[in-house]
Amino acid sequence: MRDFTYICPETIDEVCQLLSEQENAFLIAGGQSLLPLLRLRAADLSCLIDINGLKNANYITFENQQVKVGPTARHAEVAESETVKNHCLVLSQVAAHIGDVQVRNRGTICGSVANADPAGDPPVLSALLDVEIQATSVRGETIYSGSDFFQGFYATNLEEDEFITEVRFPEISSPTGVGYEKWEPSEGAYPVATVGALITLEGDLISQAKIVTGAIEPGPTFSEDAATILIGQKPTTELITEAAISVGENSDPIEDAEGSILFKQELMKTLSKRAITTAVDCAQGGA
């Protein structure tokens, strides 16, 4: 590993200044994605900016119908937060099952969103809930929409001199419900397939439906055809099954050591049915 400069700033302004001045600068908060790259000498690093010393950066608050998560808030803290459980329960549930104990105690929501790992849980949930992603640079603040923030393998709309200083999750309550499912080959392993579903009811009918898949493709992917099947209909078991089949059949998985295209498509059908069913139950007032 070649020599690099290590800096631990105390303010967001300092971080922004460093990002604007330093070439090949990397941020580290939890380091769960960056450290393996450094060990493999796969990162062209000249400056490492440690943001763990930032003042007032580890927070989880609720304001204006949004759960706001700061840049150094850990997955475990998000999972255990009463604020999150009370206003966006699915975020707590997802955070509680990210990776293993070490990952949850060191990794951060903001870092995971910025990293945009195709198998990551926060990117899929962020796209599904269309979160607000606040990025900061020397030019000021920019708010990105979660639904179109992710651009493929480890790619986002972030500029090189920006970093994520807050992610804002919308409050979720009946008649809107969210379900999230994933399949891992073993406890703590990277997911092979993930799916999130959001359902809003108006009376007995589905007025809004969104389904986002993850891990099987280069980034979070919306299943538009499946959503169209659901909207305007009663959420019967038959309808949910039809939509779930559509998710699987219209997905375009990458074949790899984890499974064939057909295996992943069938897996998506099962996971989608579970996620949609959970979302409908929550929309109807279930836990």
Tell me the domain tally. 3
* Helix proportion: 25-40%
CA radius of gyration is 19 Å
* DSSP summary, beta strand count: 12
The major β-sheet equals:
5 strands, antiparallel
Provide the succession of SSEs.
EHEHEEEHHHHHHEEEEEEEHHH
Judged by helices, strands and strand pairing, the structural class is alpha+beta
Q: Uncertain segments of ≥5 residues (pLDDT<50)?
A: none
CATH class of the largest domain: Alpha Beta
- Strand arrangement within the widest β-sheet reads 4-5-8-6-7
Q: What is the average of the pLDDT values?
A: 94
The CATH architecture of the largest domain can be named as 2-Layer Sandwich
CATH topology tier name of the largest domain: Uridine Diphospho-n-acetylenolpyruvylglucosamine Reductase, domain 3
Share of β-strand residues: 15-25%
Distance between the termini: 50 Å
**Count, helices:** 11
Shape: globular
Topology:
Layout: E1 5-7, H1 12-21, E2 25-28, H2 34-39, E3 47-50, E4 60-63, E5 66-69, H3 75-80, H4 82-87, H5 89-95, H6 101-106, H7 109-115, H8 121-129, E6 132-137, E7 140-145, E8 163-170, E9 176-183, E10 193-202, E11 205-214, E12 221-222, H9 224-230, H10 237-250, H11 261-283
Parallel strand pairs: 1-3, 2-3
Antiparallel strand pairs: 4-5, 5-8, 6-7, 6-8, 9-10, 10-11, 11-12
